[in-house]
């Protein structure tokens, strides 16, 4: 359902590009006038003028919040890189990236509660970009010192620099770096070094399928958790591994704010997981939550410190010890990373002479390896050198579509 009044309102706002502001009268500007009057938003304004499709696609809402990256945000990348990336991709890509910068509803910075994150739906709804029902989310949190941060894909953080600029259809919040549309499960687990988890999903034949399931929450054990089990998990049959991995997937999107003490969630495997709080620590069964709310294209990842066992759904943590014991009886720790060899080769692969036997298969394989090797190259290489934040920005501007 689309609202023609909204289309009209915003198209008119930008179509007229009335340079005059309402400074004298004090009345609220339309969006076009507001952006035109902001010296720090000239790049964003130019982008919006170049791709007005974004505003023509606005559905009906009570109001919207435009997260407008300031000129510094664009300047973090040489303009030529941005230009090339946008030139190589189609209008559709830029429209989707911009849609991720528009939040549903009028969200005032001053109404945020310090410390409590919110997960705000955006206008990014195309299944090519998001399989989160109701629109991909941006995490918004007010930190100590009233610093307001928007967290997007790959853990990228954008800080609010100018708050609550009202226009006739909502509010503009100025941010210091671009939001990154969340990448898929494979790309994100690679970027966050969840190597064995990713490999185990392949060993269980759950990747690539798990990356396109709608509305998913993954509890992803870090590498150390798989190393602590060793052959107790790596020598299982594929079906047994699938049982274990399905126990790490809840088929609905559960952000950290819903991981409340005593809550149970039904997994894809069929057994429940239980959330427990002890002091400031959160546990999933007996596994401690290490990092919450890593947004992905089809939901969210929470990193935990132990592999969950569907045979032991009532496992409880011992909060007095720092590191919980494995819940697999025959655990025997190893130095190597289990399941790495199950990850399909995407870079520097041996050339096979066996090509063209199945056009469908070949096509699928080609497109998979192209997209993953690009994103891996960008994400992993830059992450090693400069950290995730820089990697995220590069990815957003240089390979947003490639990541998916
Ligand atoms: C514009 O950006 C500069 C530097 O980033 C900053 O010092 C200034 O306060 C900004 N202007 C407004 C109106 O916020
Ligand atoms: C969403 O799911 C569909 C199939 O259900 C898939 O084709 C598409 O690639 C998925 N989107 C993303 C961003 O992973
Ligand atoms: C995704 O979650 C929404 C609730 O947010 C639900 O209405 C919808 O049916 C779910 N879709 C699937 C495929 O599970
Ligand atoms: C990834 O995890 C492995 C195993 O825990 C560790 O040895 C390695 O240093 C990690 N790499 C990065 C980049 O954090
Ligand atoms: C998450 O918590 C909110 C607020 O308590 C509640 O309305 C919502 O139903 C919860 N969602 C899930 C999936 O549990
Ligand atoms: C899972 O938990 C829910 C809510 O606590 C409960 O109703 C349900 O019976 C449980 N299912 C299983 C398989 O334990
Ligand atoms: C969580 O719930 C349990 C059982 O009701 C309770 O004993 C424990 O104190 C709660 N934890 C916190 C941090 O409130």
UniProtKB/TrEMBL annotation:
Membrane-traversing stretches: none
Residues of the FAS1 domain: 28-179, 181-308
One Pfam family recorded for the sequence: Fasciclin
GO cellular component, as recorded: fungal-type vacuole membrane
Region (Disordered): 353-373
Keyword entries, A-Z: Signal
Signal peptide segment: 1-23
Sequence ranges of Low complexity compositional bias: 363-373
GO biological process entries: macroautophagy
SMART domains per the UniProt record, alphabetical: FAS1
Skewed-composition ranges (Polar residues): 353-362
Protein name in UniProt: Fasciclin domain-containing protein
Protein species of origin: Hyaloscypha bicolor E
């Amino acid at each position: 359902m689309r609202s023609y009044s909204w289309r009209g309102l915003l198209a008119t706002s930008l179509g007229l590009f009335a340079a005059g502001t309402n400074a004298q009268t004090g009345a609220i500007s339309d969006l076009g006038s507001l952006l035109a009057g902001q010296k720090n938003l000239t790049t964003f304004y130019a982008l919006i003028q170049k791709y007005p499709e974004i505003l023509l696609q606005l559905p009906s809402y009570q109001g919207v919040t435009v997260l407008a990256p300031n000129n510094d945000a664009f300047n973090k990348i040489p303009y030529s890189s941005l230009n090339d990336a946008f030139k190589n991709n189609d209008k559709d890509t830029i429209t989707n990236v911009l849609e991720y910068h528009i939040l549903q509803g009028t969200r005032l910075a001053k109404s945020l509660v310090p410390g409590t994150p919110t997960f705000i739906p955006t206008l990014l709804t195309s299944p090519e970009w998001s399989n989160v029902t109701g629109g991909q989310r941006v995490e918004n949190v007010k930190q100590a010192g009233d610093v307001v941060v928007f967290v997007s894909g790959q853990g990228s953080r954008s800080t609010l620099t100018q708050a609550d600029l009202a226009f006739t259809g909502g509010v503009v919040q100025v941010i210091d770096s671009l939001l990154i549309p969340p990448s898929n499960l494979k790309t994100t687990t690679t970027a966050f070094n969840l190597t064995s988890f990713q490999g185990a999903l392949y060993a269980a034949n759950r990747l690539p399928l798990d990356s396109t399931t709608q509305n998913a929450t993954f509890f992803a054990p870090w590498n150390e958790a798989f190393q602590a089990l060793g052959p107790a998990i790596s020598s299982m049959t594929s079906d047994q591994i699938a049982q274990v991995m399905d126990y790490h997937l809840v088929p609905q999107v559960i952000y950290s704010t819903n991981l409340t003490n005593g809550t149970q969630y039904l997994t894809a495997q069929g057994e429940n997981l239980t959330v427990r709080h002890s002091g400031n620590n959160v546990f999933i069964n007996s596994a401690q939550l290490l990092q919450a709310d890593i947004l992905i294209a089809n939901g969210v990842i929470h990193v935990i410190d132990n592999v969950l066992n569907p045979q032991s759904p009532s496992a409880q943590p011992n909060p007095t010890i720092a590191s919980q014991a494995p819940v697999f009886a025959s655990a025997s720790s190893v130095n190597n990373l289990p399941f790495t060899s199950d990850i399909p080769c995407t870079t520097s692969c041996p050339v096979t002479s066996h090509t063209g036997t199945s056009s469908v298969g070949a096509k699928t394989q080609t497109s998979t390896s192209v997209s993953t090797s690009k994103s891996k190259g960008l994400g992993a290489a830059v992450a090693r050198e400069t950290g995730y934040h820089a990697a995220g920005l590069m990815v957003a501007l240089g390979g947003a579509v490639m990541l998916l």
